[in-house]
Amino acid sequence: MFPYWMMDLLLPNHVEISLGNCERCHQLPPLGKLRFLKVLNICRISALKYIDDTFYGDMESSFPSLEVLSIRVALCLEEWTTVNGREHFPLLSSLTVDCCPKLVKLPMIQSLKELHIGETNVTLLTSLIMNATVLTSLRISDFNELPDELLKNQKQLDRLNVFYCSLKSSSDLLDNLSCLKYLDIQACSIESLPAGLQNLSSLETLDLNFCDSLVSLPVNGLQRLSSLCSLRVQHCKTLASLPEGMRYLTSLQDLLINECPELTSLPRSIQHLSSLRYLQIRCCRGLISLPDEMQHLSLLSEFSIINCSNLMSLPQGVHNLTTLQALRIYGCPHLQRRCKKVRGEDWPNIAHIPFIEILN
Fold first, then answer.
1. Less CB within 10 Å around the terminal CB: N or C of the chain?
2. Is residue 12 scored above 70 in pLDDT?
3. Is residue 113 part of a domain?
């Protein structure tokens, strides 16, 4: 590596730097001297134990242009010191700290808008989130238990991703997130969604993925989700039913149900989804019937049923879906037989649909 004093000469205009797989690196160079650096990625520097004042350089304001900082897989990193009396990271808006299990403290950074944090000490998680009061996007992953009132100060949070965490239905994680528009809960140990779900009046998209312990959605927890436009429930192996409370999702336009093998039917209240335009049901082998009241989905334009091998027939009410432009049926042997052109028992109910595709 070249001497630190040469950094200004050799890298004066760099805007992005990645340091990775430096197995013998014990100290980071004075990257804070680079006036135009906007993106810095540090990954897999396994020998690094301390980030000290050398990292900041001898500037009055270190990292004056840095906007994105990522530190990942620093297994030995224990301490990150700051230099008092200097300004650090004045423009930093996005921070990723992942797989740094020994790190318990970071410099104070109040300008953060995006934070991704995972596989770190829970003390670090708490201090970062408590001090970052203007977050709009937050991703949390790989924590066995999340502290109470973790997000109580996040009044501006717009997007929340929670991956590989253990959640309780009594958790206050979703309380007070009145501005939240996107919620993604993935691969989390949870039987029921946190009660605070019902207060997410601004929520537009809800994604539930690989939540193997999820048995049901809250009966009343959907009542206030009047802004929800997209609901995707995927790979939830024990989900047995969807609640009749879906009737309150009057803004819902896109509904996807995928790989929920214990689901046997859809709720009758689906008829009240007056804004629904796209409905897709995939790989739900336990599904044996659909509610006849689907005649009432007056704006539905695309309907896909894929690999639902035990679904016996389409609802009679399909013939009333005059706005339906596309019907796709794949891997549904009973429907394939009943929907054969002209001869199938269900053909009179679907003949009006402009595009029909039925495949094995």
1. C
2. no
3. yes
Backbone angles phi and psi of 241, in degrees to 5:
-160, 160
CA 14 to chain centre: 32
Tokens of 264: 């046997």
Instruction: Check pLDDT > 50 for residue 281.
Output: yes
DSSP 8-state symbol, 166: B
The arithmetic mean of pLDDT across residues 286-312, rounded, is: 93
**Are residues 153 and 130 in contact, defined by beta-carbon separation less than 8 angstroms?**
yes
DSSP per residue, 317-338: GGGG-TT--EEEEES-HHHHHH
- The DSSP output letter for 241 is B
Count of CB atoms situated within 10 Å of the CB of 280: 16
pTM beyond 0.90 = yes
Start-end of H helices in the chain: 7-10, 122-131, 333-338, 347-350
Q: How many domains does the chain divide into? A: 1
Structural domain span for residue 86: 1-135
Query: Dihedral of the CA atoms 256, 258, 263, 265 (nearest 10)?
Result: 40
Torsion angle, alpha carbons of 323, 330, 216, 234, to 10: -100
